[in-house]
Amino acid sequence: MTDTLRAVQTLSDALDRMHSGMKGDMDMNASDLATLRMLTIREHRGQIVSPHDVASHLRISTASTTKLIDRLVATGHLERRPHPSDGRARVVVLTDKSRREFFRHFGVHLAAMSAVAATYGDAELATINGFLEALTEAITTAP
Q1: 3-state secondary structure 42-53
Q2: pTM for the full predicted model
Q3: Residue 59's closest CA among 28, 89, 24, 35?
Q4: Contact yes or no for 40/106 (Cβ under 8 A)
Q5: What's the half-sphere exposure (Cβ side, CA atoms, 13 Å) at 24?
Q6: Three-state DSSP state, 78
Q7: d(CA 18, CA 50)
């Protein structure tokens, strides 16, 4: 178990380095990039994202969230749109420009990760997926 947790720490460090490189390449701060990652993941799941969701995810104030979203809208990475079912609320969505830039910078890493995953069978990947989802849940819900 200790070796597995050390491997998770090493992976976390590698992901930090990858994200640091991406934020430099994309001329963004850590919160900007974390917002784009969050929106990419939730878009893939078919989930809508409100400014409140961004604030909760990043654990920042609503004022800071407004500034962050304003900055990403101004640079063409996000758009504010009406909520699909609540006309009073707004949602934030990635722009095509944002998707292109994000995947242009992330694509090399994604290809490398996909090559590693291709060396495992479906049953092994299901076990790994279950472990990573449980680990994510444990980290997310820890105080």
Answers
A1: HHHCCCCCCHHH
A2: 0.78
A3: 35
A4: no
A5: 6
A6: strand
A7: 27
